[in-house]
Design brief:
The protein is 17% helix and 40% strand. With 175 residues, it is an alpha+beta fold. The strands form two sheets. It has a six-stranded mixed sheet. A five-stranded mixed sheet has the order 3-6-7-5-4. It starts with 6 loop residues before the first helix and ends in an 11-residue tail after the last helix.
Length: 175
């Protein structure tokens, strides 16, 4: 019996395990995106996919940050404009605007961002804790930390915290 055919897949498997180990050393994967010229990052474990803008159906009597809903392969998915969620001025969609679809627990939610720049690993060594002195439109509790990337700083967000909160102007749930 010739063992030659089994050898290349075994080599490929070893190589991919080595690559995976090297990837683990580099840190967790984050989607890096822009909002109002600032860099933000979200853990890839929450981001299901990234879409070009599509027809968003507005829903009356919802928070201002809720742009509406989209039909995503037969599922109705709410879409939040992160600019409005963070208290930033609105911006018309451009060719770089994207909808990042996130899954948080049993909730699937789209988030409008100005541009998706990259998906990249960020080592824990590159992440500094967010100072309690940080002020701005993002709650410090929703910030994982600040990462230095290519000479720029990216604010790494905890999507579970941001998207799990209810807006103050959200209508009360019927119960």
């Amino acid at each position: 019996m010739d063992m030659q055919p089994a050898s290349p897949p075994a080599r490929r498997r070893r190589k991919s395990l080595t690559q995976h180990k090297r990837y683990e050393d580099q840190g967790d994967l984050f989607v890096i995106f822009l909002l109002a010229g600032e860099r933000y990052g979200a853990g890839i474990h929450c981001v299901q996919e990234i879409l070009k803008p599509r027809n968003i159906t507005e829903i009356p009597h919802t928070p201002d940050s809720l742009a509406g809903v989209i039909n995503l392969r037969g599922r109705i998915v709410p879409v939040v404009d992160l600019r409005l969620k963070f208290g930033m001025p609105p911006r018309p969609h451009t060719k770089t605007t994207r909808i990042m679809v996130a899954v948080i627990g049993d909730l699937t939610l789209g988030m409008i961002v100005d541009e998706v720049l990259a998906v990249r690993p960020i080592s824990n060594k590159r992440i500094e804790s967010a100072s309690p002195m940080l002020s701005g439109s993002v709650d410090v509790n929703a910030v994982i930390g600040l990462a230095k990337l290519d000479g720029e700083v990216a604010t790494l967000l905890n999507l579970e915290e941001i998207l799990g909160r209810r807006d103050d102007n959200a209508p009360a749930a019927n119960g």
